[in-house]
Structure prediction request, 574 residues.
Amino acid sequence: MHYIFEPGFFANSTVRTALVLGLLVAIVSATIGVFTVVRGQSFAGHALTDVATAGGAGASLAVISPLIGFIGGGVLGAGAMDAIGVQRVKGRDIATGVVLGAATGLSALFLYLVTLQTSTTGSTQTILFGSVFTVSPSTLPDALWLSAVVLGALFVIRRPLMMSSISSELARTRGVRIRLIGLSFMVMLAVAVGLSAIVIGSILSTALLIGPPASALKFSNRFSTAVIFASLLGTLATWLGIILAYDSYYWSASHRGLPVSFFVVAVVVAQFAISSVFAQRRRVRVALSNERHAAPEQVGWI
Amino acid sequence: MVGTDLLKVEDLDVSIAGRMILRDVNFRIDHGEFTGLIGSNGAGKTTLLRVILGVQAAARGRVSVHGQTLTRSNSSVGYVPQKVVFEPDLPVRVRDFVALGLDGAKLGFARRSRQNLELVDEMLDAVEAAALANRRIGSLSGGEQQRVLIAHALVRKPELLLLDEPLASLDPGSAQEIIELLHSVVVHQQVAVLMSAHEMNPLLPVMDRVVYVANGGVASGTTDEVVRSDVLSALYGHHVDVLHVHGRVLVVAGESDHAKSMVADHPAVIVE
Prediction:
């Protein structure tokens, strides 16, 4: 155990805060992420991370909680995307691209001003790539209620959201209010990205949002299974990232710990690679099994 | 309810972005009738179905079910759209997809009732897809997916089922199975079917009525009443011949040798 958990790991209140926050973020990101991947809105999710960057940098300038900045920026971005036309398939890339461009420009300005204000690059590094070990324990209650609200709201709209994710045309004829459901989802996505930005930074929050759900979807034939599986993978990635980052402090004589976000993303990528290999093997096995059971006299379509 | 028109379309004009797509459309459908909505690609079949569903506004006219103006998500109308792409990794089992036909628009925390789950199984049995219940919908063949889409539309027990080109992209064997399934739905469940297709021949054995869409107008009635040279010539605005060959109907542009030679090469094609 000593080789995994360096001395003082569990006694450290900063680590405990990081672990709880990591758990919340992993679950929220995974749950929202499953729908994001199924709806084909990964690019929109990534754009919201850039908007969250602008919000986080703005919060740093205004000396308010970064969580408020990340989430506030994300929600404004979601509203802007909806107004431009993210709900329509053809308008989706345009809306995302326009908001992404505007947000990146704002981020550049705000981060420059932050650098001038603080005379260091530490804040910029924290905003872009996260620093879960520096998060104040007072952030936890806010993260907790925000997570509860997002998960509760998602549970309430799960069926119309599934319908519209499968086929917006079919959903519309069943009476689903596509626009309202889509906008609600975008707001939830913005909150998830904001929470994730606290742990691994705004730029890398896409990794937690997309990676674990993409891996889980290869093996799940139900939304609920995919959400549970993705949450487990996300939690594993986050906690392993925190453990490795903590341990990395002891890896060299200079005692320079490596960033959590790097380890989290490394685990997410490894999970995706492993799940892809297993999924490919399963596809081959199923194809061979289907071939064996196919009727020999079956006539093909010439 | 028998004796009243199930669906009545009266004096309907439809325009999209300033362009008139359909004009002065009139037809009716009774209970337990199989109606083919026939026309070439781009004739306005999908637009007409969308107006009947209430998702596309009409410029003029009225669509009513049992005499009541139709509203969106009317439970007496089921719908199978032209193209639903089910990605292979979509995490939805067949059973869950059919159940969404019942509660897909519902908000809330409630779980599915046992009664609804039984209804789903009953509907999967009706379309002979019970064995597929636990399969991922994206892993099914095109014909199997059509069966499941039909179960999804029927699970609310509609009186009228609209299908937009359900035979498109199916091989002839699967297409025939879907037609037989729909005929069985009409006969055993007394559901009226309005199904669009650009080729009427596969439907001839089961079709009670035809709604023929061409040139922005519509002709409706039994096949013998509508698929005639004089009726279709009036609809197309130029002479067309209707040929009967080995029990199949060919609609041929009357004065074009090129068109006739095309039909000789592709006997199932409707030529305008």
